[in-house]
């Protein structure tokens, strides 16, 4: 991973709401093309951090540098980043195709271009046959794919995902995991994935950033985190929880071990 | 870039707040400044003042209690028994809402009549009088019942059925279920409803104006109206403040009584009782009630087409012709213009305000929300009086715009709250998605949010339209000099010929509002299919 160049450099980012310090001078670097998970319980500041990265929230202090350019104050749509929200936030009155097209049309692409590109995106996420469906007629997994296609259509080189699996059932989650990895491989996009699910973070990520109360507890590969947990928090929140899961599984299905 | 956007948001909100200060707060304050010790003295020394307070409070209190009891019985009949004809009854029960309060008073007159000359009295040969306390209470119940009914019905419909199932399994007897589950659930609504209905009746002047007599004397609202029209603005202002009191109390109670925490998730509604006896009792009760509250309306419809009601009931169009001759067509046009102005301007304003207070929060959002719902606490007569004083020397005084504005403000709170609740439930991240995809906020609003909330918008349009069609409170003080709306033809009815006209006009308003309601019901049926 060290051979890759730095894609995003976050330096001393803080955020305070009234009395509460949500982010305490957070600094880290995201490598080009990597899959980085931000893992932590609710209230640890991970969603706030994500919103600062995309530009939906201003940071109190600190800088965000992408490809050597300071984008701390750039508008969200001028950062070359996309975001997939937890609840997808699809445009409910538009079909899957129109959801993907809509932003393209705003960007001065011709109608035909936008249409063709949107169709291609839906094909990539395997939804060509549902192009004319309204979101309410799609399953949770399909809705999420539309949201991803909508984001991919603008060709961002970084995609942020805010707990995108939390509304899906277990089987769909597992399927979407491998789809996400496939998409990342074919587009070469850097992905920053926010989750509170340890298992998900370990299954998907090149590196995991573990957060606690607005600070980074540890940022490393899954393997190194297992081997050398940085502190008690990482040990209990991440490793003990994972171990408990494995133990309970092996208790009932000894063959799995 | 980001900074600029949030500035324009704040600018819009400050403008809206200034607008409300200009059209609500400043006029009311100006009205206060007209009051001096002289006006207080002359009002309190007048012999009919103290009886008027007594009359207002006793009639309002009695009518409120009757309305609420009837509304509770009616909504329990519809929601908690398996009686037949629920759809028809819920439609019939709200029909009285479509005509002005004063029409019910004239309906009662037609029914019982001046010293027993009405249809019912004619048939029964009795000698009951509808004037005074009894008549005013009856008339007030007629038009306030639907409001009370809708308030209870809407919460009974959405009550969660699970606690009842659990209680049944635990063997808790029905009476304890009622006191332990139903009453606490309804408490907040019952309290708000009491104050809302009481305020509505106390500040209404249509019914007492039509049904007061010398024995009974005046009510606060009728004194205020006559003082205002005689330009004793200070005196009227004092009563204006007195009429604000119950409304402000109602408003404060509504804000202070905590909403019963509800999961918001209703897995299944409460099951209707299967008992045969309650079913029959409910059916009989609803039938009698529907006939009773619709009799005045029926009486004035008959009156419209009877040659010389009630003695010569042969069909005739004389009243309709008379009404048209006295300019009803012109007044109808005025009313339609007022209603359209309020429907378009009011809905637009309410949408923008609700959007700002739900989805574009800033430091003044809370103040803006409060201002948006303040209008509910201002009785129409008070608003009208404050507008006379405040806008007297402005170019809009005496034009269609002042009434359009008065109606938009007078009826603002309910449609605003409808949109506030709807927008609060729309996905909160849509604007954020727009920002990250480079779609302007205004496009997200017009292309995504408006289509999503359009059914609520239709409801708002109808609310503004229907209420503007039938209001006689604020407009009665503003027109003339402003062009006269149709509804005011009713309140100027004195002689027998005039009463024929009043009936005809009431029927015209009823028909128009009924058509509008039918259209919205039809459109909303489409929504439930969606």
Write structural notes for this entry.
The complex is a heterodimer of chains A (257) and B (530). Chain A has 257 residues and is an alpha/beta fold. Helices cover 39% and strands 25% of the residues of chain A. Chain A has helices spanning 46-54, 96-106, 111-124, 140-152, 170-187, 198-204, 222-227, 232-252, and strands at residues 6-17, 20-31, 35-39, 61-66, 69-70, 81-84, 158-162, 190-195, 207-212, 215-220. The longest helix of chain A is centred in the last third of the chain and has 21 residues, at 232-252. Chain B has 24 helices and two strands. In chain B, helix 1 (2-33) packs parallel to helix 16 (365-374), helix 12 (233-256) crosses helix 17 and helix 15 (328-359) runs antiparallel to helix 21 (441-470). Chain B is globular, with a radius of gyration of 24 Å. Chain B has helices at residues 2-33, 37-45, 49-80, 86-94, 101-111, 119-124, 133-157, 162-169, 174-203, 206-211, 220-229, 233-256, 276-305, 318-325, 328-359, 365-374, 380-391, 400-410, 413-425, 430-437, 441-470, 474-478, 488-491, 496-529, and strands at residues 306-308, 312-315. By secondary structure, chain B is an all-alpha fold. Helices cover 75% and strands 1% of the residues of chain B. The chains are: A alpha/beta (257), B mainly alpha (530). At the A-B interface, strand 6 and helix 2 of A face helix 20 and helix 21 of B.
């Amino acid at each position: 991973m060290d051979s890759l160049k730095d894609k995003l450099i976050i330096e001393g980012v803080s955020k305070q709401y009234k009395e509460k310090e949500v982010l305490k001078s957070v600094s880290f670097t995201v490598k080009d093309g990597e899959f980085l998970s931000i893992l932590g319980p609710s209230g640890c500041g991970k969603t706030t951090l994500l919103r600062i990265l995309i530009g939906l929230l201003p940071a109190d202090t600190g800088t965000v540098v992408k490809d050597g350019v300071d984008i701390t104050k750039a508008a969200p749509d001028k950062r070359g980043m996309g975001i997939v929200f937890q609840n997808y936030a699809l445009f409910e009155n538009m079909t899957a195709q129109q959801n993907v097209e809509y932003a393209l049309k705003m960007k001065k692409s011709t109608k035909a271009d936008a249409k063709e590109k949107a169709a291609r995106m839906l094909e990539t996420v395997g939804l060509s046959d549902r192009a004319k469906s309204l979101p309410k007629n799609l399953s949770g997994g399909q809705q999420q794919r539309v949201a991803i296609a909508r984001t991919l259509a603008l060709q961002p080189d970084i995609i942020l995902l805010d707990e995108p699996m939390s509304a899906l059932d277990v089987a769909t989650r597992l399927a979407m995991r491998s789809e996400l990895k496939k998409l990342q491989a074919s587009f070469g996009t850097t992905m920053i994935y926010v989750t509170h699910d340890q298992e998900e973070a370990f299954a998907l990520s090149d590196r995991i950033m573990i957060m606690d109360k607005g600070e980074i507890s540890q940022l490393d590969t899954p393997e190194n985190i297992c081997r050398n947990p940085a502190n008690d928090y990482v040990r209990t929140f991440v490793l003990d929880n994972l171990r408990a899961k494995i133990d309970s599984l092996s208790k009932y299905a000894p063959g799995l071990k | 870039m980001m900074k600029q956007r949030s500035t324009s948001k704040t600018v819009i909100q400050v403008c809206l707040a200034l607008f409300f200060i200009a059209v609500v707060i400043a006029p009311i304050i100006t009205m206060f400044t007209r009051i001096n010790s002289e006006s207080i003295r002359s009002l309190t020394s007048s012999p009919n003042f103290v009886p008027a307070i007594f009359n207002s409070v006793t009639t309002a209190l009695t009518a409120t209690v009757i309305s609420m009891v009837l509304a509770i019985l009616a909504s329990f009949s519809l929601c908690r028994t398996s009686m037949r004809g629920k759809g028809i009854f819920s439609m019939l029960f709200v029909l009285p809402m479509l005509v002005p309060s004063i029409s019910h008073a004239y309906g009662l007159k037609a029914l019982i009549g001046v010293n027993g000359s009405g249809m019912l009295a004619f048939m029964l040969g009795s000698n009951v009088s509808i004037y005074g306390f009894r008549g005013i209470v009856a008339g007030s119940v007629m038009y306030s019942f639907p409001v009370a009914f809708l308030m209870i019905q809407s919460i009974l419909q959405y009550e969660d059925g699970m606690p009842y199932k659990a209680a049944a399994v635990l063997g808790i007897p029905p009476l304890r279920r009622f006191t332990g589950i139903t009453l606490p659930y309804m408490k907040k609504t019952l309290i708000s409803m009491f104050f809302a209905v009481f305020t509505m009746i106390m500040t209404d002047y249509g019914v007492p104006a039509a049904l007061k007599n010398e024995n009974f004397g005046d009510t606060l609202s009728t004194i205020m109206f006559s003082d205002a029209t005689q330009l004793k603005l200070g005196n009227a202002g004092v009563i204006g403040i007195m009429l604000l009191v119950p409304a402000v109390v109602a408003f404060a109670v509504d804000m202070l009584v905590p909403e019963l925490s509800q999961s918001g998730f209703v897995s299944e509604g409460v099951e209707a009782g299967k008992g045969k006896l309650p079913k029959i009792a409910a059916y009989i009760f609803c039938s009698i009630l529907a006939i009773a509250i619709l009799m005045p309306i029926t009486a004035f419809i008959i009156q419209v087409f009877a040659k010389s009601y009630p003695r010569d009931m042969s069909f005739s169009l004389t009243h309709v012709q008379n009404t048209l001759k006295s300019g009803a067509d012109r007044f109808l046009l005025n009313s339609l213009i007022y209603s359209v102005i309020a429907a378009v301007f009011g809905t637009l304003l309410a949408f923008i305000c609700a959007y700002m207070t739900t989805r574009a929060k800033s430091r003044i959002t809370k103040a803006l929300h409060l201002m948006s719902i303040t209008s509910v606490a201002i009785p129409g007569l008070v608003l009208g009086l404050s507008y006379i004083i405040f806008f007297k020397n402005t170019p809009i005084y005496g034009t269609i715009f002042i009434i359009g504005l008065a109606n938009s403000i007078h009826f603002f709170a309910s449609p605003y709250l409808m949109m506030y609740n709807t927008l609060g439930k729309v996905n909160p991240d849509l604007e954020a998605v727009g920002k990250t995809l480079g779609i302007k906020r205004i496009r997200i609003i017009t292309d995504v949010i408006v289509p999503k909330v359009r059914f609520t918008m239709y409801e708002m349009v109808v609310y503004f339209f229907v209420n503007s069609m039938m209001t006689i409170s604020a407009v009665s003080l503003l027109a003339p000099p402003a062009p006269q709306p149709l509804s005011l033809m009713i309140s100027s009815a004195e002689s027998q010929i005039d009463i024929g006209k009043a009936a005809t006009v009431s029927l015209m308003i009823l028909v128009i509002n009924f058509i509008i309601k039918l259209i919205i019901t039809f459109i909303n049926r489409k929504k439930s299919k969606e």
